Amino acid sequence: MAKKQQNAITPMRVEDYPEWYQQVIKAADLAEVSPVRGCMVIKPWGYSIWENMQGVLDGMFKETGHVNAYFPLFIPMSYLEREAEHVEGFAKECAVVTHHRLEPDPEGGLRPAGELEEPLIVRPTSETIIGETYSKWVQSYRDLPILINQWANVVRWELRTRLFLRTAEFLWQEGHTVHATEAEAVEETEAILDLYGRFAEEYMAMPVVKGEKTRDERFPGAVNTYSIEAMMQDHKALQAGTSHFLGQNFSKACKINFLNQEGQEVFAWTTSWGVSTRLIGGLIMTHSDDDGLVLPPRLAPRHVVIIPIFRGDDERSEVLGYCEKLKAEVEAREYDDGKVRVELDDRDIRGGEKVWQHIKKGVPIRLEVGPRDIASDSVFMGRRDFSPKDKSGVSREEFVTRVPEILGEIQKSLYDKALKFREDRTRTIDNLDEFREFFSSEAEGGFAGGFALSHFADDGGGEALLKELKVTPRCIPVDEAGNLGECIFTGKPGSRLTVFAKAY
Amino acid sequence: MAKKQQNAITPMRVEDYPEWYQQVIKAADLAEVSPVRGCMVIKPWGYSIWENMQGVLDGMFKETGHVNAYFPLFIPMSYLEREAEHVEGFAKECAVVTHHRLEPDPEGGLRPAGELEEPLIVRPTSETIIGETYSKWVQSYRDLPILINQWANVVRWELRTRLFLRTAEFLWQEGHTVHATEAEAVEETEAILDLYGRFAEEYMAMPVVKGEKTRDERFPGAVNTYSIEAMMQDHKALQAGTSHFLGQNFSKACKINFLNQEGQEVFAWTTSWGVSTRLIGGLIMTHSDDDGLVLPPRLAPRHVVIIPIFRGDDERSEVLGYCEKLKAEVEAREYDDGKVRVELDDRDIRGGEKVWQHIKKGVPIRLEVGPRDIASDSVFMGRRDFSPKDKSGVSREEFVTRVPEILGEIQKSLYDKALKFREDRTRTIDNLDEFREFFSSEAEGGFAGGFALSHFADDGGGEALLKELKVTPRCIPVDEAGNLGECIFTGKPGSRLTVFAKAY
Q: Which of B47, B94, B96 should be substituted to probe chain A, the one whose Cβ sees the most A Cβ atoms within 10 Å?
C-alpha cells in the first residue's frame, strides 16, 4: 500500500509501460474503449485538448494561405483502385458499406437490404475522392494552387487498437494541395513538415526529428513522405505527423490536368498531409509521470485550478468568497494570446481527493486556499512539473502578477526535460555490434534502445537484424542532409544518416 | 438578354425557385454535388460560413454549461433496435457496413470480404450509441446532469437530395443530456430551443417561430419535439433546428439508471437536440435575391471587399498602395467581438467582373477605389442589402469610422426585411374555405400560402385536405401557448394555435 500513496498511477512506467499508459488515460478521464470494436469515446477532458490542438493548427494553416472545406465520407470502391499502391495499402483494413437500409429478418430482428450497385468505402484517407473533385476544378494554371484542408473522421480497420495511438476510427486533419510545378509541391510538403515540427515543439513541448521516410515506409502512392518523429518514455519512436509529396501519381490517377502558361495540357503536382488524435497519445507519453497526465500549458484546457480548503459553513463562505475574487483576478491575466483559464473546484468532496484528481488530469498549476492562507493574503501553490509534495506559499499579489510567467516556465521546463530525455537516449552508431547492443540491453529505467543515428543506403540490407531487434528506420533527418557515410548494413558509401528505433 | 444584364442569377426566384436556389449556390461557390450519390462537397466559401456558425453556437453551448466530446461513427445494428419507434424511423434510410476489407475479385477488380458478425450502421443520429455509453457513466445522482455536445457527420440515405437542405451525409451538432428529474430535462429542452431561436434571429437574421411539434412530426422515440421554423422566400417553412425531450424512452432502452438521493434505483431523463448544415440552406433562402447570395454580416466570412480600379502600371501602384493602407485601417476596427474582416481583391481580372463576383458571394460591403476616389480621399461604397446600382461616395475617414455601424445596419435591415416578409404572409385562419384559399391562390411573387395560424386538436382530422394542399402542421408556437380555440378541422374546443405551411 505504501507505493499507492506515493504514486497516483498503478502500475508505474517501469513496471508495465503499456498498462501505465491506459491507466493515465483512465485516471485523467481522457477517453475510453467504446462498445463498437476498435472505436473510442473521446471524453470531455480529452476532447478539449483536441479542440485546443485544432485551434492552434487551424490558425497556422490559415496563416499559411490554406482554407477549409469538406468532402464526402464515402469513397466508391472503384476510386480506390485507380492508384495501385494506394489500394494495396488500404484495401486490407477498411469499412465497406454494401447496403442502404434494414428490413425485418424473417428469423427475427433486422437484416441489411437494398444492396448498392457499387460498394462504398468509409474514407481511410481522401486522396482519391478529393482528387476526383479537383479534376473538375482545375482547368487552367490560373486555378492553381489549391490549398485546402479538411477536419474529419477516418476509419482504418485496425485489429489491435490502443486509445489515441491506433483506433479503427480517429479524428484528423488532411491537407490536399495542387500545384502547377514540382518545385512548388515539394516546397509545400516541406513547409508543412516545418509547421508540424513547430506545433509539436512550441505547443506540445514535444521535441521531434523532422525527416524523410525511407523507401518502405512511404505513404501508399507517395513519391516521398516526410514525418515528425518523437521519442516516448519507453524509448520508442512515435510518428506524430506526415507530409507527402505525391508527385503526379494521384493527378494521373484522378486526371487532374490543366493548360499551363505555355498552352500545354499537363498533369498537376499534388501533396497531402495530416495529423490526428494520435497527437494526444504522443502528448501523454512525452510528459506524463507516475502520478498521471502532465499537460503543457499552451494546450491545457485549464491552466489553474483553485481548491478551497475549509471546515464548517463559516469558513466555507469566507474561503469561497476569497477564491472567487482570486479566480476573477487570475482570469483577467493574459497568457499565450488569450486569458488564463481558471477553474474554481467547489465540489462537495474532500480537498485531498480533489488535489489528486487535478494532478491526475495534468492541470499545470494548483492553488490550495484555506483560512490560514487568507489570513496572510497568500495561496499555496503546486506545479504539475514539480513533485506533488513540492508546494509553497506565495503571496496572492505575486501569484496574480507572475501567473503568465509561471505558465511559460512550465511550458519550457516540459520541453527541456523531454529534449534532454531524447538526447540522453540518442546515439550515433556506425557498427553493427554497437547497434545490436544499443537495442538489446536495458538502460536505466528498464527500457532498451532509443534513437540510433546510423548511415543507411535504403536499397536493401539489414532486414534480418532489424526484424530480430524489432527496429525500423524512422526517418532521414532533414537537418543532417549533408551527413553521408558508409551504410551500417552494406557498407555502401554516400549513405544518408538515418534514425533507427523501435516504434509505435 | 436585357434581363440577364439586370440580374446576376438566372432564373429569377419567380421564374423557377428551386433552380434559382441551385444557381445561387453555384454562383457563390458554396457547394456542389459530389461524385458520391447524395453526398455534397462543401467548398471553402460555404465551409467558412459553417465555421462561423460553429464558432458562435459552440460558444453559446459552452456558456450554458455544455462540453464537447466524441462518440463512434458506427452503431451496432442491435442498438438501433432497442427503441421501437427509433429503429422504425431510421432503418429505411441508412448506410450499412457489412465487411471490413476488400479482396481481389476473381472476375477482376475488388470485392468486399471479411464479413462482420453484426452489421454496423453509419450513425444517422447517436442516441443509442451515446445512451449505451452513458449507462456506464451514470451510477448516482452525483453523476448528473451530463451536458455533452458532439460536432459530427451523420448519414441518412435520402433518395431525393438538395444541397444543404437534404443530403445523404451532412454535418451537424448533436447535444445529448441526462438529468435526474423530468423537470430538469424539460427545462433543458426548452432552454436549447431558446438558444437556437436566438442564434437564428440574432446571427442568421432569420426570424423563427419556436414551437412544439405535433404528434406525427416528433423525432422517432421522443416524448416531445420542439423546433424553430423559418419562412423561406417561396413561402414554405424550413425546420431549422430541433430539441427533443426524450422522457425515459432512451434511458430505459439503454439502461441509464442511477441511485437517487433517496437511495432508490431510478431511470434518468434525457434530451437531444441538433442543428445542421441545413442552416446554410435556410440562410440562403431567407436573404438571397436575384443577384445571388446575401450574407448577414455576423456570419459573413468577409465583411468588406476592396476592389482597386486602375489602368496601367502607374495607376496600379498608387491605387494598390492606397488600398493596402485602407485595408489595414478597416481591419483595425472592431465589430461583433472581433475585427472587421477585409479582403483586398488584387487579382488580375476586370474590375466589373470582380464586383459581380463579390455581389454573388454576398459580401456585405464592397468598396471600389480608383484614382479619382483617391484624389478626394474617398471610397465608392456598395452595400449588399441595397441594389447593385445604388453606390455612393463616402470619405475614407468617415467610412473607417462608421464601418462597424454600417455592418450593424445591414444585419438589422436583413432581419427587418425577413420579418416583414414573414408577417405579410402569416394569417390567422379559423375556417376551412379561407384555409384552402390561402394555400391555393398565388399571391404576388407567384407563390401561394405562407404561415396559417389555426387552432388544431392534433388528434386526427384534416388529413385529406392537408394532403391535397401539401400542407403540414409545422409547430405549436410556445408564445401562443394560452391561445385555445375550436379545431379548424374537427371543431374540438380547447385546441391549440398551430402553424400550418408547406414545408421543406
A: B96
Selected residue with higher pLDDT from B241 and B3: B241
Q: Per the CB < 8 Å rule, is A96 touching B97? A: yes
The alpha helices in A425-476, defined as continuous H runs, are 432-440, 463-469
pTM above 0.95, yes or no: yes
β-pair type (B342-344, B96-104) = unpaired
Give the DSSP per-residue string, B190-225. HHHHHHHHHIIIIIS----EEEEPPGGGS-TT-SEE
Instruction: Tell me the per-residue pLDDT of A34-85, one tens digit each, with 9 for 90 and over.
Output: 999 899 999 999 999 999 999 999 999 999 999 999 999 999 999 999 988 9
| φ and ψ of B497, to 5 deg | -70, 130
With contacts defined as CB-CB under 8 Å, which chain B residues touch A94? 100-102
Question: Rounded to whole angstroms, how far apart are CA atoms B215 and B217?
Answer: 6
Q: Which residue of A69, A132, A169 is in closest CB contact with B47? A: A69
- Three-class SS of residue A232? coil
Q: Going by C-beta distance under 8 Å and a sequence separation of 6 or more, which residues neighbour residue B238?
A: B165, B229, B230, B231, B232, B278, B281, B282, B285, B503, B504
| Alpha-carbon span B278 to B172, nearest angstrom | 9
Give dist(CA B274, CA B156) in Å, integer.
15
Interface contact A76-B51, CB threshold 8 A: no
Number of residues in chain B? 504
* Pick among B26, B30, B32, B41 to test the A interface (most A CBs inside 10 A): B41
- Residue that is written with C-alpha cell 484528423 in the block: A172
Q: Residue B69 and residue A47: Cβ atoms within 8 Å? A: yes
Give ipTM to 2 decimals: 0.97
pLDDT digits (tens, 9 = 90+) for A11-26: 999 999 999 999 999 9
- CB A53, CB A188: distance < 8 Å: no
Question: How close does chain A come to B371, measured CA to CA in Å?
Answer: 28
- Residue B41: its chain A contacts at CB < 8 A? 69-72, 133
Closest CA in chain B for residue A80: B110
Which domains, ranges and CATH numbers included, belong to chain A? 2-76+122-287 (3.30.930.10), 299-414 (3.40.50.800), 426-501 (3.30.110.30)
How does B415-445 read in b/e, with b if 16+ C-beta sit within 10 Å?
A: bebbeebbeebbeebeeeeebeebbeeeeee
The verdict on a CB contact (< 8 Å) between A100 and B169 is no
Query: Helix B182-198 crosses helix B44-63 at what angle (to 10 degrees)?
Result: 140
Nearest to A98 among B39, B103, B112 (CB): B112
Kindly indicate the confidence band of residue B158, based on its pLDDT and cuts at 50, 70 and 90: confident
Label residue A394 exposed, middle or buried (CB < 10 Å: 0-12, 13-18, 19+). Answer: middle
CA atoms within 13 A on the CB side of B109: 12
Phi, psi of A441 (to 5 degrees): -95, 135
- CA atoms of B36 and A73, how far apart (whole Å): 9
Question: How is residue B39 written as a grid cell?
Answer: 453526398
Nearest-5° Cα angle at A163, A162 to A169: 95
How many other C-beta atoms can be found within 10 angstroms of the C-beta atom of residue B328?
11
Contact (CB<8Å) B91/A110: yes
**Partner-chain contact A129 B34, CB within 8 Å:** yes
A121 with B110: Cβ contact below 8 A: no
CA distance B360 to B28: 5
Q: Which residues contact B87 (CB under 8 A, 6 or more apart)?
A: A102, A110, B80, B81, B220
Calpha distance B27→B10 (Å, rounded): 10
The set of cell numbers assigned to B121 is: 450502421
What average pLDDT does this structure show over B296-314? 96
Residue A24: name the closest of A274, A285, A265, A208 by CA. Answer: A285
